[in-house]
Design a protein that fits this description.
The chain has 109 residues and is mostly helical. Helices cover 80% and strands 0% of the residues.
Length: 109
């Protein structure tokens, strides 16, 4: 059951997060994510809990140092703000285009 392809592990991840996989599959997922950053990231995205134990060294550094953790959270918040700003800009651009084309269509008709 070792060295399963990433695709297979990623198929198992949702089941693993829900805790409905068998013992063997569970073990396979856990072994895999220890050595595979991509699948570990996917697992982290899917589950908010339980990832700390299997996180790599850099993440445990962050967790063990409160100041770093705060910096990390600040960075995250800043990123969220940027994402929110970007999506508002997209929404405004979309509205502008939508209204613009409505006007153009209105003029043409
Ligand atoms: Zn993988």
């Amino acid at each position: 059951m070792n060295n399963l392809p990433c695709e297979m592990i990623q198929d198992l991840l949702p089941l693993y997060v829900d805790g409905v996989v068998g013992e063997e599959a569970k073990q396979a997922v856990e072994d895999h994510v220890k050595n595979c950053a991509a699948c570990r990231q996917m697992l982290a995205d899917m589950s908010d809990t339980g990832i700390e134990e299997m996180a790599d060294a850099s993440v445990s550094d962050t967790a063990s140092d409160p100041q770093k953790k705060i910096d990390f959270m600040k960075k995250n918040r800043l990123m969220m703000k940027r994402i929110r700003l970007a999506s508002s800009l997209c929404a405004i651009a979309f509205m502008t285009i939508a209204i613009g084309s409505m006007l153009v269509l209105g003029i043409l008709q």
